[in-house]
Design a protein that fits this description.
It is built from 19 helices and 23 strands. It has 689 residues and is of the alpha+beta class. It folds into 5 domains: 4-72, no CATH class; 78-170; 177-252 and 262-270 and 320-450, no CATH class; 454-499; 503-688, 4-Layer Sandwich (Metallo-beta-lactamase, Chain A), CATH 3.60.15.10. Helix 7 crosses helix 16, helix 9 packs antiparallel against helix 10 and helix 10 crosses helix 11.
């Protein structure tokens, strides 16, 4: 097996990811099974990834025992700590408060090195130090837990008071963070709105001023990776210093490239994708310095081992997974391109060589997108069918945008170069406007953003992977494309047939007062309960589920205001009679009740009834429903078998009787097949009374 270190590293990272997701007791028989496979496998090369997986499991257990368990042992304690505000802190819902990660340097007067997640604490910016009392607890078991573990956060802290401000931290990374903020302000000063946040995100990893509409357009077009600083950005910027290979001082230039890469990595806050690329680049520069060949897959495996040793939960970060999967896709594209070039060289056809050269960027985009597809689906994210086309059209525009951004920062630092600043800003604005225009047109294409059913899609991808293993040798690889095409076509037809008339209902938006979105056959009904954040959350949710405007929006608010939201029909409950019923979507019914300042909507889906209310409505006779979605207050007018909520401990918890309570922290909901099953999504039972 070639590239042994690469396969060892991928096995190492994969085992850590599996260990973080599986129950601890499952890891022991899994390790025994891997050891048995390695012992009985006759091919020595096949033992390398198995050995990597065994080492990954062993290191995860050791890391958990030495580093994680002592942190988690502090859960349930009330302590006085010295805390430092980390760079991910952002404004909280309360005035003059932040939320984010705190680094605890002292606990009850003793030195400590502990990172905690805090939903609300006093502060203004990163780098501030203060002393306060906190109640430490375990992280909630939700979709964000593993992501926080990957950043070294294992506890949650609740601020209790006793605040005492201290001198700000003088750690260099906070100085670099402030420098990044100043440079971001410079870019925003010379660039028009919408484009300023776009350039700051691409060059400096500052997304605080990136508009939601721009971010959604890039996501729908399948090029959101351009807005997140990654290995692509690092490679393009360090490529500016890649000249002079034949010069005498080429080796000092290598050191200069390494220093520039290190500075950029620290400036952007060292996100996982950039850290991975930095390690790969360090290996490449070392090989270049000593005139040794470098292999991308081997360097990637080496980076995976180093990052996994630093934090055994690092592979749980979605940036880690997307970055490494994209590298595998690029590596596969490189192998395919090399095979095509050899075939073209043997045929000695100029036309064939031209076709191979034109097909190269398309193959890279296609295989990188295909390699990252399982990660996107596993995390419940939408995919783009036009991503390949959009990547080919705009990826080449990234490097000039980064270069002009650097020139703008350099020219703005010299007072007498003001004319050049204006010229550079104008040129960069036109370039970014053209780039954004292409992205928005691609995002507006039909089926640009597609939401794939998670479990079914992962099952299909697993079948395709099993077929690839079966046909991996000899002439089988010629048969595999045909078998994969037939399998994919059958899966698509079956998926469309199985999803027809299926109804998805989800709580979207603020946990204490979420909206309810009902989607069927690509069309949606929105039951709106107020709030700008809810409106934005509904728009983001629908962007992945339905490319059309909602068929109906029901405004349940007691004091409705004008909504900046596209919908085929808007019904304001305050303008409706006491009772109304209508047919929506494909055969569903919705009953609307209004009484004074309270409203109630009841969706009829076959023999199931789902209720959504705003306020405590009073009716002559109570209504019996299957599910009541996240009420702000209970009403005797609605009797539900199950209450679905996004708050773990609602204030009315003690009032429910003869009812099941289901909780979900992300987008809890349910999937219904009219006349058949009802399946809960992202929700678990926390009380049965």
């Amino acid at each position: 097996m070639k590239r042994k270190l690469g396969w060892f590293g991928l096995g190492f990272a994969g085992a850590e990811l599996a260990a973080a997701n599986l129950p601890p007791l499952v890891c022991v028989p899994a390790a025994a099974f891997l050891a048995l496979l390695a012992f009985w496998n006759r091919r020595r090369d096949a033992r390398i990834p198995l050995l990597g997986a065994l080492c990954g499991l062993a290191w995860f257990a050791l890391f958990t025992l030495i580093f994680v368990q002592p942190c988690r042992a502090l859960a349930g304690q009330t302590v006085t700590c010295t805390a430092v505000v980390e760079t991910d802190a952002e404004a909280s819902y309360s005035d003059s408060r932040l939320r984010g990660t705190l680094r605890l340097t002292e606990i009850n007067g003793k030195p400590a090195r502990l990172r905690v997640q805090c939903p609300s604490f006093p502060g203004e910016s990163a780098g501030e130090r203060f002393e306060a009392s906190f109640a430490l607890s375990s992280l909630p078991d939700n979709r964000y837990r593993l992501s926080r573990n990957s950043k070294g956060v294992y506890l949650q802290a609740e601020y209790l008071g006793s605040y005492r401000g201290l001198a700000a931290s003088k750690v260099p990374r906070f100085a670099l963070f402030r420098l990044r903020q100043r440079w971001s302000a410079v870019l925003r000063r010379w660039l028009p709105k919408r484009l300023d946040g776009m350039e700051a995100a691409m060059l400096l990893a500052d997304k605080s001023h990136l508009e939601d509409a721009v971010q959604q357009a890039f996501r729908a077009a399948g090029v959101s990776h351009l807005l997140a600083v990654s290995g692509l950005h690092l490679a393009l910027l360090c490529g500016l210093l890649g000249f002079g290979r034949r010069w005498r001082f080429y080796k000092p230039l290598i050191l200069l490239r390494g220093a520039a890469a290190l500075f950029y990595l620290l400036l952007t806050g060292a996100p996982v994708s950039v850290l991975r690329a930095g390690l790969v680049l360090a290996v490449a520069l070392a090989g270049d310095f000593f005139l040794q060949p470098v292999d991308l897959l081997t360097s990637t495996g080496f980076a995976a081992v180093l990052m996994g040793l630093q934090n055994a939960c690092a592979p749980c970060d979605i940036g880690f997974q997307l970055s490494f999967c994209a590298v595998l896709g690029v590596q596969a594209a490189a192998a395919l391109t090399e095979a095509e070039r050899r075939a073209a060289a043997q045929g000695k056809s100029a036309a064939l060589r031209l076709v191979c050269r034109l097909a190269e960027p398309v193959q890279v985009a296609a295989l990188a997108s295909l390699a990252t597809l399982p990660v996107l689906v596993a995390h419940g994210m939408s995919t783009s069918l036009v991503g390949i086309v959009c990547n080919v059209l705009v990826v080449w525009m990234l490097q000039p945008a980064l270069q002009m951004g650097i020139l703008l920062l350099i020219f703005s630092a010299v007072p007498f170069l003001l004319p050049l600043v204006n010229l550079t800003g104008l040129t960069l604005s036109l370039w970014l406007k053209a780039m954004l225009g292409i992205v928005e047109r691609c995002a507006a294409l039909p089926f640009a953003s597609v939401y794939l059913p998670q479990r079914y899609t992962l099952f299909v991808l697993a079948v395709l992977g099993a077929l690839a293993l079966y046909y991996r040798h000899g002439k089988g690889m010629r048969v595999y494309p045909i078998a994969a095409l037939i399998c994919t076509a059958a899966a698509v037809v079956m998926g469309i047939w199985m999803q027809r008339d299926v109804v998805e209902i989800n709580l979207v938006g603020a946990s204490n007062n979420p909206c309810v979105v009902c989607v069927q056959n690509g069309q949606a009904v929105v039951l709106f309960r107020g709030g700008e954040s809810n409106l934005s959350a509904v728009e983001r949710y629908l962007a992945g589920r339905s490319r059309q405007e909602p068929a109906l929006l029901v405004d349940l608010r007691a004091r409705p205001t004008a909504l900046d939201f596209a919908a085929a029909e808007v019904v304001t409950m305050q303008a409706q009679p006491g009772f109304d019923t209508r047919t929506v979507l494909d055969g569903l019914t919705i009953d609307l009740y209004h009484n004074k300042s309270a409203s109630l909507a009841v969706l009829g889906i076959g023999d199931r009834h789902i209720a959504v209310g705003a306020g405590s409505i009073q009716l002559a006779e109570p209504i019996r429903v299957d599910v009541l979605c996240a009420p702000g207050a209970l009403s005797d007018a609605v009797q539900a078998d199950t209450i679905l909520t996004a708050v773990r401990h609602p204030k009315w918890l003690d009032e429910i009787e003869s009812c099941e309570l289901r909780y979900g922290d992300a987008t809890p909901g349910l999937t219904l097949r009219p006349g058949r099953s009802m399946i809960w999504e992202e929700a678990q039972t926390i009380a049965i009374q």
